[in-house]
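Section 3.1: Structural characterization of target chains.
Under the original work plan, the team committed to producing a structural model for every single-chain target entering the pipeline before any wet-lab resources were allocated. The record below documents one such target. The sequence was received from the expression subgroup and is listed exactly as submitted; it comprises 173 residues.
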Amino acid sequence: MRSLCISTVLVLCFSTGLMAQSAAEAESAFDSAYAVRIGQTEIDGVYIPMDLDDAIAELRRLSAPQDLEKFKTAPEDAVRTKLHFGLGKWIILNWGFYEGSRLSHWLKEAGLEHPDDMARVIIVCFHRSLNGQDLRLQDEVDYYKTLREKERLEREKEQELISEEKHIRKDRE
């Protein structure tokens, strides 16, 4: 019991330095790690595709033929929504969309910001590829940009102004 108390005290004493890290330092550390991650072909033992075509090829490689056939015959709307919490979460976590990866960076440069949107676009484009259709990546990017902008405007409309003050600067009187 005594060793547990000493360990707890040591952890608390040494972790305060971690909490004291400034926002600028944390952002700088994230940016440094991000710069390394976007150059890696593999993260935590998982191959990271370099672009959308490579992601589609990797999904084909990782999928069983019977699963590919089921996926191919599903309606696109169902693929977009129903697979997000299975395949979509796998893509987000394994291909490093939160911390950054070369694929998430490629998708950001294509115009997507949110990891959920990135995964949905990959899933829909994968479905279209299996069906021999044009991927229409830009249409997907535009759709999610518009959706996110609409959500942002709705949030702004719903925000309540608590108070407003007007300060007059003495040097401008």
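Confidence is low (pLDDT under 50) at residues 9-13.
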